[in-house]
Specification:
about 425 residues; mainly alpha; 22 helices; about 0% strand
Amino acid sequence: MPTPIELIATLLFAVAVLHTFSVPFFARLANRNGPHAGVWHMLAEVEAVFGVWAFVLIVCLALLGGSGKAIEYMDTRNFTEPLFVFVIMVVAASRPILEFVDTVVRAIARILPMRDEVSTYLVVLSLVPLAGSFITEPAAMTLAAILLRDAYFRTSGRAGFKYLTLGVLFVNVSIGGVLTSYAAPPVLMVASTFGWDAAHMATHFGWRAAVAVFINAGVLTFVCRDVLRGAAKEAPARDNGRAPVPLVVIAVHLVFLVGVVLNAHHPAIFLGLLMMFIGFTEAYKRHQNRLMIKEGLMVGFFLAGLVVLGGLQRWWLQDLLGDLPPTLLFWGAMALTAVTDNAALTYLGSLVQGSSETWRYMLVAGAVTGGGLTVIANAPNPAGYAILKNHFPDGSIAAGRLFVSALLPTLVAAGMFLLPV
């Protein structure tokens, strides 16, 4: 039987999920500029949703068990992932890194036998998510979202195109990080327990994910080819005639990025690197844009709230996962990921004793497949949401339209992962 605080935590978790689906409603209220516009604006910030309801949970813990109980619970939570996503967003979104990635993307795009604006879109939606297997998914999401924003999202309207793009982006980033064992949060949570290394991931998951990524990106590029040409023509230049960033500055930024990625599981190190990185950017401010510190903090707050609320969901999730046969587990994990975090889901599944290799495969495959259906399904999604949301109607992204837009690419990924070995 669950304890009272577990029941309260599950209730608050459900309320938080419903809140994320209600964000467009609060955004419309905020845009009316009434006397309570500030409150509605706060409730319309999806990055704040889980943090706010996590705070309510901590208050409930303190009231029921005393402040010591609440503090003890917080001390047992692992906030490495929220901290890492914050740091990688700040570093990866810096102007020198973006200029370097943009140059590489455009060089690859020029090789393809199609117009530059079309081939660039294809490369951003395919190769950048697959690069997440090496630079981590949050970094890939940050880079892809900014490239898409600057090239295709700055024009008003075209909401349908933007939702379709976002759906494919979220799905491709979620499955694009499974070529290695350290880059995708749901894989990282189980790789050591299951004994999966990079070779295992590439042979069992990686090629399937790569095929699905290219199918999703290729089909959407073909469908939206006419829209891409118009959007690219109307997009303003990003740097407005500024001089290119010197190669030595780009090299230093790349060193910081690699250092953060290599120390992704050591907060003391990557936070220290962030401090040094901010100091370097201040020293060479003329080569920088504004650092995404506010956006990164909001995303970190969102993920931290998810950690706090999700930590008390084991009482129902673990038993539910353990009772499912492998094939049903795949679809169950995919569906549950839409309303939970897929890394938390695979972690709970790893605690099930006596699981078979097929059962483990289906658990992780289902979790990464469903990672694009909602903003809470995969840790990097809030980063993409924060970067792109202002270019959607009312400055928010409707959860229902995102789900529908991500459904077809999710089914493509499901088909690849369910192919016989």
